[in-house]
Specification:
heterodimer; A: alpha/beta; six-stranded mixed sheet; 10 helices; 8 strands; B: about 200 residues; mainly alpha; Rna Polymerase Sigma Factor, Chain: A; Arc Repressor Mutant, subunit A
Chain lengths: ~290, ~200
């Protein structure tokens, strides 16, 4: 085994080299211990290595400047981020952000609702071309009926025969033609379910309709109950309109009364009147 | 070892930091502009890839802007900023695949260094330094870059790298020795003029 070279202190050469290198590096950085400084301050090798390391450090400490375009772009982005962070958060802005976040969910819900209505209407649709042709002649929408002045529009009239045709096509926004030539919209599914308990409850509307078909269903049900003697017996507040009150209801979201025409056997007509003004809002032909 | 210029710069930094923390955009611009080149240099030396370094620099700036409110001034702004940059670069190093490089010979004898002439910026160009750094083993490269490029002290480097301070001291010395040997050899074999007769 070959004897390894040693330094004057008796350390193996590679250990001595390593120590000298580390102390020289520490001297450059000003972190050499007092003992190290005393021991190696007069060592020419340490001085030489320190000088080399000092030059290297000086060289590394002066980096090349970054590309100007890159610098400006990065600084601009950082300042934009700073501005965004510095802006006070306003309630309106927070609401707008929340609305933006909710928008996809609302859109999805609306899309689902439309799909559901379409599927429902397709399920109830017959293939009759004639019926479809009848329905295509009617194009108004319910908002037209709602916003039209009563004096000009007159009251929409609904007959069971009109609705018999219309009912075969349950496409959304399909309509039945009123006698006046104006149209009101019939939706696909009649909603004649009472909205409250007890069909004869007095004092609060228990039916709700916004389409002629719904109204027809309500009128037929009320008339049947009337014939059976189970209907409500309310006082007709409108002396100008013959008939007895069959039910209170909400007609296109407005309180109304359904008046059944007096008939000894069975009502053949019904009207919807505004209880405050006694204006006729709609007429319904129930048929024989 | 703080120089007068460094002390003045730190004092200026403190004023700019205070203004920026109060919302002064121009102060922040000045502050970041002052340190940008060194942040980029730290990233370039650590990542030895220009595009990665640019990305890391951008991330570091944004991180610094977001954290500016929590900067308490206990350290110099530059130290704080370079440490953010270093951490950003270390994250990127961990994420990316290692690029294969031919490592430098880690065996350095004292004679290798004693016989090496002192460096001269006219004969050792940046490309040679960058190339040598790229081939330096990562542990040594990080220590040397944090000390000599970012100018972080040993304690901060130890904290940043998560190693004892003695290890930092050793890695810096070994890294410098390997680099000096490599660059000294290049000088000795290059066609650059030297001061030797």
């Amino acid at each position: 085994m070959t004897e390894r070279p040693t330094d004057p202190a008796g350390l193996p050469a590679d250990s001595f080299d390593h120590e000298v290198i580390e102390v020289a590096s520490a001297l450059v950085d000003g972190v050499a211990t007092p003992v190290e400084q005393e021991r190696f301050s007069s060592n020419p090798q340490v001085s030489a290595v320190s000088t080399t390391f000092g030059s290297l450090r000086g060289h590394l400490a002066h980096p090349e400047p970054a590309p100007a375009a890159q610098r400006e772009a990065h600084l601009a982005a950082a300042l934009d981020a700073f501005s965004a962070l510095s802006q006070p958060v306003s309630l309106d802005a927070a609401r707008a952000r929340r609305a933006r976040r909710l928008m996809p969910a609302l859109a999805a819900a609306a899309a689902l609702a439309v799909v559901g209505v379409v599927i429902g209407s397709m399920a109830g649709r017959s293939g009759s071309r004639e019926q479809a042709a009848v329905e295509r002649t009617v194009t108004s929408d319910v908002s037209t009926a709602r916003t039209r002045p009563k004096e000009q529009a007159g009251a929409p009239e609904v007959s069971s025969s009109d609705l018999a045709n219309a009912s075969t096509d349950t496409r959304p926004m399909a309509a039945a033609v009123a006698a006046s030539g104006d149209a009101v919209v019939a939706t696909d599914t009649p909603s004649t379910e009472p909205t409250g308990e007890g069909g004869d409850a007095v004092g609060q509307p228990i039916y709700a309709a916004s389409t002629p078909r719904q109204l027809l269903g309500i009128a037929q049900e009320v008339a049947d109950r009337q014939v059976a003697g189970a209907g409500a017996r309310l006082t007709n507040p409108c002396p100008n309109i013959a008939g007895e009150v069959g039910a209170e209801l909400l007609w296109i979201n407005q309180p109304a009364l359904l008046l059944l025409s007096p008939n000894a056997q069975r009502p053949t007509d019904a009207v919807v009147v505004n209880p405050s003004t006694c204006a006729v809002e709609a007429t319904v032909t129930l048929g024989a | 070892m703080a120089t007068d210029a460094g002390a003045m710069s730190n004092a200026d930094d403190r004023a700019l930091v205070a203004a920026a923390q109060s919302g002064d955009r121009r102060a922040l611009d000045q502050l970041l502009r002052r340190h940008y080149d060194r942040v980029y240099a730290v990233c370039r030396r650590i990542l030895h890839h220009d595009a990665d370094a640019a990305d890391a620099t951008q991330d570091a700036l944004l991180a610094a802007v977001r954290a500016l409110g929590s900067f308490d001034g206990n350290a110099a702004f530059g130290t704080w900023m370079y440490r953010i940059a270093t951490n950003t670069c270390l994250d990127q190093l961990r994420r990316r695949k290692r690029r294969p490089t031919a490592p430098l010979d880690e065996t350095v004898m004292l004679s290798d260094l004693v016989e090496t002439r002192p460096f001269d910026s006219t004969v050792v160009d940046q490309m040679a330094v960058q190339a040598a750094l790229e081939r330096l083993p990562e542990d040594f490269r990080l220590a040397v870059v944090l000390r000599d490029v970012a100018d972080l002290d040993y304690d901060t480097i130890a904290d940043t790298l998560g190693v004892p301070i003695g290890t930092v001291r050793s890695r810096i010395a070994r890294g410098r020795a390997i680099l000096a040997k490599e660059l000294g050899n290049q000088i000795g074999t290059s066609e650059h003029p030297t001061n030797q007769p």
